[in-house]
Specification:
- Chains A, B: Its main location: cytoplasm.
- Chains A, B: It is found in: Cytoplasm.
- Chains A, B: This is Aspartate--tRNA ligase.
- The structure is a homodimer of 584-residue chains.
- In chain A, 29% of the residues lie in helices and 24% in strands.
- Chain A is of the alpha+beta class and 584 residues long.
- The longest helix of chain A is centred in the first third of the chain and has 23 residues.
- Chain A is built from 17 helices and 23 strands.
- The first copy, chain A, is globular.
- Chain A has three domains: 93 residues, OB fold (Dihydrolipoamide Acetyltransferase, E2P); 263 residues, BirA Bifunctional Protein, domain 2 (2-Layer Sandwich); 122 residues, Gyrase A, domain 2.
- The interface between A and B is large, with 127 and 127 residues.
- Strand 23 of chain A pairs antiparallel with strand 23 of chain B, so a sheet runs across the interface.
């Protein structure tokens, strides 16, 4: 036994006990006749004391030699601390050391192992094992474990069975780019790493497993944006003999359970809005509803005067920024500059101040009188003291721009509190979306999503108008989960592939196994997948997912700690029947 | 709601209830005026009844049209069954159907969906989703889930934190062959899929996580023997500030918990033997101790007479087969033929019958008298009525041969009962083993295993004699887990790589990140990994692991259901900077 207690557990009740502790030297203070050392492990910090009067000189010397992050084991007596530190649970005691063993020395770490470190992102990634010693990262990993345990227990209690689906599967052209794995035993052939276990979980439903889940790694070889990882984790779920309502109920229950268990927050019923409604009200299919600023469409209220910018716009739409009528000209100009940035792309912005005295002051006073502006205030829900900001142009683009502005203002105004949680369901997504680049429709969710029965007749005439039995779970402006009721018969699945531009032969080659399976008695089924990395980060009140991933990769897909990917031997390539062909 | 109850839950107490059920048609019996249908789902089977007297003719017709594996939904009334079937929990009732909906038709399945199917292995793999409908496979998957949930809860309660380590890592030449993954973003470079999260879990210990576990897929690109899979699952565990005894205690506790929870078997303390002892007593480092037949070494008792075969042998060793003295000459000759098979490779076998009258009759009576043979009986522990079987030759080879014979006899004699469980620890494995092919020592466990302190001085002089702080957990003749106390300082790790034939530069390039990490304060640590597939199969009383894997691959590493691996587009290869180079 290396220790009788960990560094977080000794209390006043333990005074006079003989204990053995082991851990890392967090810091030491040397006052000559006394040396105090903070000994740290995963569970906490305990203060050690070496006292000239009670410790032999040799041990005083050795205590003096301890550097930061040395690994030590001590034996000693728990004593009452003279100056208590009530900020930490062990702060009433200290341990008078009578035996000291240095288990391992340590070089000076390249950054401080403190909650607020002086290490930059790159350095922290290279020495991730040191970064993990810091409370913010360590606690994020412990938190992730707690969440996954809660998820597993919750779903298991509801008869969900966790099944491991294969990692070495088949590459498909639909969707994002696959990572592939050359097969040595089958020269010229490749496995692919799964982007999700989608088809396998559907086959488990065909297999009668009824309720499946899996917390599983998925892979996408995409150009990485910030905060995207080539490997990520899903809570993947599927149920049979269910309707959409059953699925929403189960996973709303799970989310409610997590919010309750982790944050002691009770949320009774999650609001639901349709995709169309979300786009109209928030310009966004994953709206943050912790704050208002809902869109007010001003076409009717603004297109009857001589202001040609509005008159020629497909959409005129505004939001009321609470208590912002007092913004200075300079502040407003800054906002106008902000919306003109290439990332947002608006060409201009109109504002209207709703003064406290009930009058209005707008940047287009030349065209609109007080009655017009009062109408704008009514439509956008602005009250006295608010500032109305208005964008105009093509509908979709303008909505996206105003959504970006709405989020920016919410951030600036501190309306996005990480400890406040506002989930909602967004329903009735479009089945297909047009892609200019490939000149065809793509599945908005994936090709296995079922169209709404009442919309199927539109598939040929107006495919963009067909709604899907698809739903997203949104939390604080992030999509944390998404799913659908699946197609479960061969004919509809074949029709779907046809509309996605597959020939019959292509569909059969890629997804024949699934369509065949549907011919042997597939039950109605559907499911949902949560993005675990994001879910855990949001539940943990964080913006970025990296601290919740033990060993993340950087934006170039590299693990800088182990220096991967790397070259491999020619012999290894040869065994795989491959040669390199690097251009440029 | 597709159903009010599942097909396994209705009981006599539910009689007169109106219910909705959904499931698959297991079979139907048509007596003209009455039709019975067995409706099946994951949870059980409920009998439906269509009765001419109480059911309209149209529905009788539709009931008649139901084929095997059709997916149907019914509404009806629970009634008492006339001829009760007490073999199934729902056997006291049946449901008189008043509404029938066919949710999906089904083609005739290619094999029967019964506990004993007429489908061969290949067909079952191709239609695995149908195979999963069969109880033996379905129950194996549910059992696996139960075991993993127990493992997770047990370890979580002991403060173990499950951490997901990366799947896209770096290829290393040590150990088995890696699967590699070309990186599009880093042309000419490859990730590797992990053979185990070994280095990452050690880095988590350096990171202070203290107690880690993970149920995780691992990958080995090896020529597949029967019952080996290219992807397999480990319960991977690691602890800090521990000695070997602490690890044995925790994982013995886990195994005991599983045996208790799953089979209600109490096993107090697991026996422990050393590797040397296991080899001497059983010729095997994973002995099945559910039965005796321990080896008796007969050199002293047999090398003093004129039988040159024994006199020239390095080892003469025998086992006592219980109650086999009555074997006929023909039976014994068959055993002699059996040990001469190439898979065993013995050149001959000597036997000695211990007759019930206390006399002995051996195949070498010419050389040995009754007193000699009595001595053999004493050494092998043979009692009257037993048959002593003796092999001789080079020690290691002969032990392996006798071990194979021992297992074969135990199988024939029914001594390996799947519902009896006999775990044991095998300790003190050699650190290194000589490999003739590469002409160097290899790590028996892996290069991170620590040598026993008292043996380190032998590293240069007699490396084969150095024992490791390594241990295996053996259950019923299978290694279900293995682990070690790790090296935790850079010097010892560098020394180890040197002895494995690495140059300093090679060691640094491959494992520099780990050796560097050791310089920043690594704690003493060690761990263990269970092979989950095997563990679950043995706990489930099965010999083969396939039924416990949802979608296994065949011996050529192919998933015959989805037909993977497969060729990929040239465009895809091009993006990866690769071209094919297939020989022959």
């Amino acid at each position: 036994m290396y220790r009788s207690h960990n560094c977080g557990e000794l209390r006043a009740a333990d005074i006079n006990k003989e204990v053995t502790l082991a851990g890392w030297v967090q810091k030491s203070r040397d006052k000559g006749f006394m040396i105090w050392v903070d000994l740290r492990d995963r569970y906490g910090i305990t203060q050690l004391i070496f006292d000239e009067a009670r410790t032999d000189e040799n041990m005083m010397q050795r205590a003096r030699s301890l550097g930061r992050e040395y690994v030590v084991q001590i034996k000693g007596t728990v004593i009452e601390r003279e100056s208590k530190n009530l900020n930490i649970p062990t702060g009433e005691i200290e341990v008078l050391v009578n035996e000291l063993t240095i288990l391992n020395e340590a070089q000076l770490p390249p950054f401080t192992i403190e909650d607020e470190t002086d290490g930059g992102e790159d350095l922290r990634m290279k020495y991730r094992y040191l970064d993990i010693r810091r409370n913010p990262v360590k606690n994020s990993l412990l938190f992730r474990h707690k969440v996954t345990q809660e998820v597993r227990n919750y779903l298991s209690n509801l008869d969900f069975c966790e099944v491991e689906t294969p990692y070495l599967i088949k590459s498909t052209p639909e969707g994002a780019r696959d990572f592939v794995v050359p097969s040595r035993m089958n020269p010229g052939q490749f496995y692919a790493l799964p982007q999700s276990p989608q088809t396998f979980k559907q086959l488990l439903m065909v297999g009668g497993l009824d309720r499946y889940f899996q917390i599983v790694k998925c892979f996408r070889d995409e150009d990485l944006r910030a905060d995207r990882q080539p490997e990520f984790t899903q809570i993947d779920c599927e149920m049979s003999f269910i309707e959409q309502e059953d699925i929403l109920k189960v996973f709303e229950g799970l989310t409610r359970h997590l919010l309750k268990t982790i944050h002691n927050i009770d949320i009774t019923q999650f609001p639901r809005i349709t995709y169309d409604e979300a786009m109209a009200k928030y310009g966004n299919d994953k709206p943050d509803i912790r704050f208002g600023m809902e869109f007010g469409e001003l076409n009717a209220a603004a297109q009857h005067k001589d202001f040609s910018v509005f008159n020629h716009a497909e959409l005129v739409v505004g939001i009321a920024v609470p208590d912002a009528a007092s913004y200075t000209r300079k502040q407003i100009d800054a906002l106008i500059d902000w919306v003109k940035r290439p990332q947002v792309g608006a060409s201009g912005m109109v504002y209207c101040k709703c003064e406290l005295d009930g009058t209005f002051k707008s940047s287009v006073d030349k065209f609109y009188d007080q009655a017009d502006l009062a109408k704008w205030a009514e439509v956008t829900g602005a009250k006295a003291g608010d500032l109305i900001l208005i964008l105009s142009g093509p509908a979709n683009k303008t909505r996206a721009q105003l959504s970006a502005l709405r989020m920016e203002l919410a951030n600036r105004l501190g309306l996005r509190q990480p400890n406040e949680f506002a989930p909602l369901w967004v329903m009735d997504f479009p089945l297909l979306e047009w892609d200019d680049e490939t000149g065809r429709y793509h599945a908005m969710h994936h090709p296995f999503t079922s169209p709404k029965k009442e919309d199927i007749h539109l598939l040929d005439s107006e495919p963009g108008k067909v709604r899907a039995n698809a739903y997203d779970l949104v939390l604080n402006g992030n999509e944390i989960g998404g799913g659908s009721i699946r197609i479960h018969d061969k004919e509809t699945q074949a029709l779907m592939f046809k509309h996605l531009g597959f020939t019959t032969a292509e569909a059969q080659e890629q997804f024949g196994f699934l369509m065949n399976a549907f011919q042997y008695g597939a039950p109605p089924h559907g499911g949902l997948a949560f993005g675990l990395d994001r879910l855990v980060a949001i539940l943990g009140g964080q913006e970025t997912i990296r601290d919740f991933i033990a060993f993340p990769k950087n934006n170039a897909g590299r693990d800088v700690m182990i220096d991967a990917p790397a070259t491999i031997d020619n012999a290894q390539l040869d065994e795989l029947s491959l040669v390199l062909n690097i251009k440029g």
